[in-house]
């Protein structure tokens, strides 16, 4: 059988414009290229501007992770200016980051991911009917509950930041807000509503505490079978359907993982420094090479542009040493020469390796036996990686696994805010270099800044999407999604849903899908071309 | 009943995210109860690849009716007016928009990038971004000053970074139920119903503003106009009347208004000293004064208030 080429432009339901070209031989993908198809030049825009420009500009890089960009931008200035951060400031930043991530979990699951499981490809599977009944867009039984509940966590963000998305309430030296008791009380109430509306009854079918007892993959399977309520919860169904539909059989990826870590402890990062960051993290950072854990060191990060539409630079430069990108001529997916430049994304590498960023990377770091007392210690995904290995299924499970833990964190942090304490200590502006990072919902996010003569000289942003959808590097090694697509079976080239599923399992953008089958009558509410 | 096509050019999805937070009606109700049929949305549509390209061609040929074209993000024209920095479905996005604008019942620009270029268009504007019918304060933009859609209106601008979900849903509903004739637009094509009053209307620190009691970051109470560059008195938007995410607003959470519903955001193009800082003459007189007043009148009034010994900050305590 001859090799066929399949151009998919746009892939859709991924943040930004992603196009994918795959080569198919005997129904399986043998080569894949991801193409990021849009350039705005945010880093260039910030050159020569006010040092605090990143607080306003970078959240607008991505409307889904805006709060995470803010966390990075304020942290980068903290290290550059040597600010002082009060416990309150660190708590309120962590609450903002956590609420944004918590929002994204149901939104991503129902709006972006689960709708693919309602694709006709799976029509012959026993659980298909139940999946369609629950997760069809707009008319699915739990779709609406989940989507409505997803707006609640960001109400908490708005209490402290004014609005979500696109607040700039985290500033070098702390936060802008000075909440009162009524704000804290209201935040608690909103959080409780999220739990009562969706998290416990719909998603888990049990209490948060019961779910958090799960330590191994066998525990997880026992949990599913423990009672009808858990088995029939949305998570129970996801586990059963995921395995039945074979989601554990494809989309492995590069098998190496990077997390920059997040949630700086309120008492351990009061004098922010780049060196002191790893130890102060609650959700730990690190690099996992498939066998061993390595301590995260931002100096081991480099970027390649051999296959990116930017003027050539030395391969493998650290962000501080990189020139601001100069765009070169781009082509459509159809006309691209994949031996040359073919994407607006650069290719980041850690210690020379392509690495996957995202919730899976995060929970793998949470299973690191070296984690300290104040850090998350959760062995579950260490075990799942051994028993199942990486796959679409493992990646999806990792993403939703964090919801109960994040819930408990926000609850705890709200109660630790000292209403009589300080929220902001005005810093002194100066020239220098800074580094700030966090874990956005979709994974490792970092900013590097250099300030000279009182203005921004260099600003480099590395987003989780860059790690995941990046093209080949200087040695032509493919990026994580390009690798994850290899070996994927494409059943129907006119509806390459499998490519979408792999791409979306990397935590793509989360928005509600406007396609619908009425579960009762099978009537399509909107035009869906087959 | 209205068929909606939603496209994103130089966008961050912030307006889509904001739209998802809509209440009364929710996005789900828009579809199920208000007759909006979303033909495709870049981050939601099930169709991918060629299926999307076929849909776009069917709309342009008139086979599929498109009552509303919603556009989020800037029109990317770079490099050198080719639009190739933003390919979409195998063509420069700007070429699709040109074709689609000819068959659209109404065109709605959502968010600052789509209305006047937004952050993307800040100098040096590496992507040669523009809004649909404006570039900053200048009418014209991508479609030209004279553009009107088949429904007889120019581009309807819903600015904001992001736009508030109510601003989006209410305009979509107005078109869908045939009441767009009841929506008046101002010189910047903004629906007057949302963009006549100022952000300051409804600000909880309005008394502190009047009495010139200054606030600052991490403190309760006090006005942010004089020290940290709040643009509430010169920005038209209903933020403090309808609130965000049902809870708050920038100024209510002690965050200076950034003026994001006015053309020209980010103001002063982020030049040194313009971020979270009030620009002043001689370190004393604000360069920009509240809308509707002359500088002299404002300086006299403010100066008088400043020296009044009776002014006491109105501050909420922590508990």
What attributes characterize this protein structure?
heterodimer; A: 530 residues; alpha+beta; three-stranded antiparallel beta sheet; globular; B: 319 residues; alpha/beta; five-stranded parallel beta sheet; two-stranded antiparallel ribbon; 9 helices
Descriptive overview:
The complex is a heterodimer of chains A (530) and B (319). With 530 residues, chain A is α+β, with helices and mostly antiparallel strands. Chain A is 38% helix and 14% strand. Chain A contains 19 helices and 15 strands. In chain A, the strands form six sheets. In chain A, strands 1-2-3 form a three-stranded antiparallel β-sheet. Helices cover 23% and strands 13% of the residues of chain B. Chain B has a five-stranded parallel β-sheet. A two-stranded antiparallel ribbon of chain B has the order 4-8. Chain B has a two-stranded antiparallel sheet with strand order 5-6. In chain B, helix 1 (14-20) crosses helix 6 (165-176). Classes of the chains: A alpha+beta (530), B alpha/beta (319). At the A-B interface, helix 1, helix 2, helix 4, helix 6 and helix 7 of A face helix 1, helix 2, strand 2, helix 3 and strand 5 of B.
Summarize this entry quickly:
The longest helix of chain A has 31 residues. With 530 residues, chain A is an alpha+beta fold.
Derived structural class of chain A: alpha+beta
Terminal CA distance of chain B: 50 Å
Main sheet specs of chain A:
3 strands, antiparallel
Q: Helix proportion of residues of chain A, in percent?
A: 25-40%
Give a short account of the largest sheet of chain B. 5 strands, parallel
Straight-line distance between termini of chain A: 25 Å
Low-confidence stretches of chain B: none
| Average pLDDT over all residues of chain B | 94
Radius of gyration of chain B: 21 Å
Question: What share of residues are in beta strands of chain A?
Answer: 5-15%
The number of strands of chain A is 15
Overall SS class of chain B: alpha/beta
Global morphology of chain A: globular
Give the low-confidence spans of chain A: 509-530
- Largest protein interface? A-B, 109 and 96 residues
CA-atom Rg of chain A in angstroms: 22 Å
Mean pLDDT figure of chain A? 91
**Counted beta strands of chain B:** 13
The oligomeric state is heterodimer
Morphology of chain B: elongated
């Amino acid at each position: 059988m001859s090799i066929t080429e399949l151009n998919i432009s746009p892939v859709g339901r991924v943040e930004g414009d992603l196009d994918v070209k795959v080569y198919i031989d005997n129904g399986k993908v043998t080569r894949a290229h991801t193409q990021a198809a849009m350039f705005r030049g945010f880093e260039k825009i910030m050159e020569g501007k006010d040092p605090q420009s990143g607080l306003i500009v970078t959240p607008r890089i991505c409307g889904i992770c805006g709060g995470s960009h803010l966390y990075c931008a304020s942290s980068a200035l903290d290290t550059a200016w040597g600010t002082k951060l009060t416990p309150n400031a660190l708590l309120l930043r962590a609450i903002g980051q956590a609420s944004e991530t918590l929002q994204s979990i149901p939104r991503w699951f129902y709006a972006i991911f689960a709708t693919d499981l309602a694709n006709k490809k799976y029509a012959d599977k026993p659980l298909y009917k139940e999946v369609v009944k629950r997760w069809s867009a707009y008319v699915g039984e739990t779709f609406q509950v989940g989507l409505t509940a997803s707006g609640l966590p960001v109400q908490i963000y708005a209490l402290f930041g004014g609005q979500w998305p696109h607040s700039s309430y985290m500033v070098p030296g702390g936060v802008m807000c000075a909440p009162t008791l009524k704000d804290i009380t209201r935040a608690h109430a909103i959080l409780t509503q999220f739990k009562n509306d969706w998290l416990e009854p719909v998603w888990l079918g049990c209490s948060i505490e019961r779910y958090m007892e799960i330590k191994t993959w066998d525990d997880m399977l026992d949990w599913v079978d423990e009672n009808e309520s858990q088995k029939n919860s949305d998570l129970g169904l996801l586990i059963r359907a995921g395995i039945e539909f074979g989601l554990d059989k494809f989309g492995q990826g590069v098998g190496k993982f990077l997390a920059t870590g997040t949630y700086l402890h309120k008492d351990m990062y009061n004098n922010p420094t780049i060196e002191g960051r790893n130890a102060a993290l609650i959700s730990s950072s690190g690099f996992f090479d498939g066998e061993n854990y390595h301590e995260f060191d931002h100096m081991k990060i480099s970027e390649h542009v051999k296959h990116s539409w930017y003027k050539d630079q030395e391969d493998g430069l650290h962000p501080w040493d990189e020139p601001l990108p100069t765009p070169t001529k781009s082509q459509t997916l159809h006309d691209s020469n994949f031996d040359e430049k073919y994407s607006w994304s650069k290719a980041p590498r850690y210690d020379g390796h392509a690495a996957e960023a995202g919730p899976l990377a995060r929970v793998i770091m949470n299973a690191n036996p070296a984690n300290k007392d104040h850090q998350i210690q959760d062995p579950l995904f260490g075990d799942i990686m051994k028993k199942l290995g990486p796959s679409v299924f493992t990646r999806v499970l990792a993403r939703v696994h964090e919801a109960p833990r994040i819930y408990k964190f926000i609850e705890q942090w709200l109660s630790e805010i000292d209403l009589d304490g300080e929220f902001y200590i005005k810093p002194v502006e100066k020239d220098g270099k800074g580094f700030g990072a966090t874990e956005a919902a979709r994974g490792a996010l970092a900013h590097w800044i250099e300030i000279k003569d009182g203005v921004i000289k260099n600003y480099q942003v590395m987003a989780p999407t860059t790690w995941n959808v990046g093209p080949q590097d200087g040695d032509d090694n493919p990026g994580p999604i390009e690798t994850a697509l290899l070996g994927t079976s494409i059943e129907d080239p006119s509806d390459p849903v499998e490519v979408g599923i792999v791409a979306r399992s990397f935590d793509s953008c989360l928005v509600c899908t406007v396609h619908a089958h009425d579960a009762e009558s099978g009537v399509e509410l909107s035009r869906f071309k087959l | 009943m209205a068929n909606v096509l939603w496209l994103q050019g130089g966008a961050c999805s912030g307006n889509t995210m904001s739209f998802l937070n809509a209440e009364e009606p929710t996005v789900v109700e828009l579809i199920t109860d208000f007759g909006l049929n979303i033909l495709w949305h870049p981050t939601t549509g099930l169709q991918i690849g060629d299926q999307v390209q076929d849909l776009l061609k069917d709309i342009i040929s008139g086979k599929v009716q498109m009552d509303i074209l919603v556009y989020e993000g800037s029109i990317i024209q770079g490099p050198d007016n080719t639009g190739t920095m933003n390919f979409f479905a195998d063509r420069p996005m700007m070429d699709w928009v040109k074709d689609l604008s000819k068959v659209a019942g109404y065109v709605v620009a959502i968010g600052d990038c789509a209305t006047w270029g937004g952050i993307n268009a800040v100098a040096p504007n590496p992507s040669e971004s523009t809004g649909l019918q404006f570039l900053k304060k200048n009418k014209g933009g991508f479609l030209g000053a004279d553009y009107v859609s088949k429904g007889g209106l120019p581009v309807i601008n819903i600015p904001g970074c992001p736009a508030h979900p109510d601003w989006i849903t209410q305009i979509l509903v107005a078109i869908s139920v045939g009441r767009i004739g009841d929506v008046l637009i101002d010189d910047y094509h903004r629906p007057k119903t949302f963009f006549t009053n100022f952000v300051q209307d409804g600000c909880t620190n309005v008394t502190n503003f009047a009495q010139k009691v200054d606030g600052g970051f991490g403190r309760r109470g006090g006005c942010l106009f004089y020290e940290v560059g709040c643009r509430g008195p010169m920005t038209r938007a209903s933020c403090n009347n309808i609130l965000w995410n049902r809870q708050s607003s920038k100024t209510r959470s002690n965050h200076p208004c950034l003026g994001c519903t006015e053309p020209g955001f980010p103001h002063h193009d982020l030049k040194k000293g313009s971020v979270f800082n009030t620009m002043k003459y001689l370190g004393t007189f604000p360069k920009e004064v509240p809308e509707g007043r002359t500088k002299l009148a404002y300086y006299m009034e403010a100066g008088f208030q400043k020296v009044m010994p009776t002014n006491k900050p109105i501050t909420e305590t922590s508990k």
